[in-house]
Automatic annotation (TrEMBL), chain A:
Biological source species: anaerobic digester metagenome
Keywords assigned by UniProt, alphabetized: 4Fe-4S, Iron, Iron-sulfur, Metal-binding, Pyruvate, Repeat
Alphabetical list of PROSITE patterns matching this protein: 4FE4S_FER_1, 4FE4S_FER_2
Lineage per the UniProt record: unclassified sequences, metagenomes, ecological metagenomes
Stretches for region Disordered: 1-25
Protein name as catalogued: Pyruvate synthase subunit PorD
Membrane-crossing residue ranges in chain numbering: none
Automatic annotation (TrEMBL), chain B:
Record GO terms (molecular function): pyruvate synthase activity
Annotated organism of origin: anaerobic digester metagenome
Keyword field: Oxidoreductase, Pyruvate
The Pyruvate flavodoxin/ferredoxin oxidoreductase pyrimidine binding domain, residue ranges: 14-224
PANTHER family in UniProt: PYRUVATE-FLAVODOXIN OXIDOREDUCTASE-RELATED
A Pfam family this chain is assigned to: POR_N
UniProt keyword annotation of Cell membrane present: no
Domain (Pyruvate:ferredoxin oxidoreductase core) ranges: 269-373
Name of the protein in its database record: Pyruvate synthase subunit PorA
Keyword Lyase found: no
InterPro entries: PFOR_II (IPR033412), Pyruvate:ferred/Flavod_OxRd (IPR050722), Pyrv_Fd/Flavodoxin_OxRdtase_N (IPR002880), THDP-binding (IPR029061), Transketo_C/PFOR_II (IPR009014)
EC number per UniProt: 1.2.7.1
Amino acid sequence: MPVKDYRKKISLSESGPGDAGKTGSWRVVRPVIDPDVCIPGRRNAPACYICWLYCPDGVISRSVPPRIDYQYCKGCGICAEECPTKAITLVEESSFIKE
Amino acid sequence: MQIIETGNTAAALGVKLARAQVIAAYPITPQTPLTEKLSEFIESGEMKAEYIPVESEHSALAICIAAASAGARSFTATSSNGLLYMHEQIQWAAGARLPLVMCVANRGVGAPWNIWNDHQDSISQRDTGWIQIYANDHQQIIDSVLKAFCLAEEVMIPVMVCYDGYILSHTHMPFDVPDSETADAFLPPYQPPYALDPADPANLNTVTMPECRPDVRGDIAPGYMEIRHLLQHDLIEAIPALMRVEERFRAVFGRGGNPYIEPYRCDDADYIAVSLGSLSYQLHGVVDALRAEGVRAGVLSVHLYRPFPDKIIVEALDGCSGVIVFEKALSYGYQGPLCSDIKSALYRHAQGRPFVTNYILGLGGREITTQDLYEALKASCSPDGGAGEETRWIGLKLHTRGMQT
C-alpha cells in the first residue's frame, strides 16, 4: 500500500505550525515578553529558553529575545508560569482590540 | 510435515512460520500454552523475535500497537476476560489501521468465573473493526494464522483468529506444518506502508477534529468521520481481498478453497444448520443421521464473521426452507448475534425467505451432546421450524425460567 494512500486512512500529525489550523484565535489571554526582564533579552545572548522548552505548541523561538508566534499561540500561559524571571505577562486579548 | 499436536501448538507454529517480529502476551487459560510455546521458540533461538512479557492484556496489545506503528510484524493472543481487558486497545488497533494478528482461544466470560469454551469473548468484540476468522480444526488454525498476516498487511486491518478453547486448543490432532521456505514464499517480510521514524517525527492518531483540516503541508487531512468511513469501506473490500489471499495460499500450499464458509450437504438441503467453529463438524454427523432418515439437512460453517460475507451466505442458503442457527454466544436481551446477522442478510438478499430459528448452547463449556444436537435439529426440520420460541436453549439441566424449579 503506497504511503500516500495509507496516510488518508489514519490521523497523522507532523511537527510544524498549523496542524490544527490557526489556533491563535482560541486565545483569551496573550503572553507578552518583557525583553528588559527576559534573560536572553537582558543579556543580549542566547540563554535560558525555559519558555521555548515548556511551550506545548512549539510557538516560541530560540531567538534573542524569544518571539511568540501569535498565529498559533493558544494562550495557555505555561510560559508565563515557568519563566524564572517573570518576564512574561498574560494580557487580556480584548485589550488589543482597537476601538 | 504431518504432526500430531494441540491447537495452541498449531497456532504457535503458524506464528513462527509467519516470522512475527514482536510478541507481547499475558497468559490466560486456555491460551497459555500458545504463548509458552512461542517463548520457548524464541528462547531456543528457533525463532527470531522480541518476546515482551507484560503485566496485563491491555499492555500486551498496547505493545503490539506500538511495535506495528514502528513497522514490526506483531502478534498477541488471549482468551475471555483477557480479551475484554484489551477492549479499548482493540478498537484503537483497528482505527490506527495496524496489521496485527491475534489468536483468541475462545472461552466464556465472567461472571460467574469460568474457564471453559464458548464464543462470548470474541463475539462481544464483533463491532470493533477487526476482521474475525473462526477455525474449525487444527489445520485451519495454522493455515488461518498465515493467511491472517497476509490479509492484515494487504488491507491494513487487524485480524482475530478464533478457535475453541480446550476443544481445539488442548486436543491433539494431526495436521500439516509447511516448511519455512514455502511459508516464506507465501508470506514475504512485512513492508509497512508507513513506520515511525525518529528522523521524521509524527504523532499518530492524535485528537482529530469533527471536520477536515489543512495539515502542516497545506493538504486537506481527513476528519474523524472520513477515517472511520474508510475503515468500513476497507473492511467490505477485505471480503474480495481474502479470496485473493486464499488463491495465493492454494497456489503455494495446494490446499484451501472457500475462505468464507464451509457448506456441508447444503446444495439440495431443505434445512440448514449454521454455526461457528468446531461445533460445525459435530453437526456433520447429525446431518448424516438425519439424511439417513430422509430429512434433507445440511450444515453451513461460517469462517469469516467480520466483515460479514452476507451475499455469499445467502447464496449458500438459497432454496432452503429453514435456517437453524446454533450459537455459543448471545446478545443478552435479544438473541444470538449470528442469528441476527443471518436474518439481516436474508432480509436484504433472499428471494423467498426461509424461517430462522436459534439455539443457544454450550455456554461456559456445558457439554454439547450429539444426541441433543440431533433432537434439536430434527425438531426444527419441519415447515414451521418446530413450534416454540425463536431462541431456545439446549442442554439446560435446571429450569431456571422465572426462578421456579
